[in-house]
Give the backbone structure.
Amino acid sequence: MDSITVRFLGCGDAVGSGGRFQTCLLVEGTTSRTLIDCGASSLVAMKRVGVEPRDISLVLVSHLHGDHFGGLPFLVLDGQFSKRDRPLIIAGPPGIETRTREAMEVFFPGSSSTKQRFQVTFVELQARRSMAFGPVRVTPFTVVHASGAPPYALRVELESRTIAYSGDTEWTDTLVDVSEKADLFICEAYFFDKRIPFHLDYQSLWTRRALLTCRRIVLTHMSAEMMSRPPLAGVEYAYDGLALDL
């Protein structure tokens, strides 16, 4: 059985706590390269480690906050300047195309109406409806995070492996479904035990660990407060550059 690799190009929060890049996860299969989220700093993160943006065929977006989709205008612009000819699919919550084109227009006036050298297709994902994009299948689940559009946790299947990703959310029992028997659950742990709306803390997650049937959990999207604590025994933490073979 072939393995797939998950690379944390960026695992930081919106304000760059710890000097980390904003969320950008690269899932590499035998014949595919997919991004899960594309925060505003993602193009820099890719180029720093030698990932060629033109090789990305699919971007899956969890929700429409800048640290999760704000890199899309730069990714499209890079494709235009680098003479990309490979189609790009961007799939995310309802409104993904409108919000991306609005961001393009704010950053680079006129760019939203420029005809690209390559095909860009936007796809709106619907909660609990699976969609296949070549070898990649994604199922979105609605979570709890105010972002001006439905926020999703994502369940991504590729080559007999399943990756679950919480996106940004406070605790919701939906995460039990998202992570069911997943090989890897990438889960937000913004604070250690401080509970705030729309974000998940470590204690709220770990007190429910028995409900989660995933094989492995890696914590991500941590605040400065969470990162300042001594590492917890037996707990895996993401960092920029971490690569996991599944």
About this structure: The chain has one domain: 5-236. The mean pLDDT is 97.
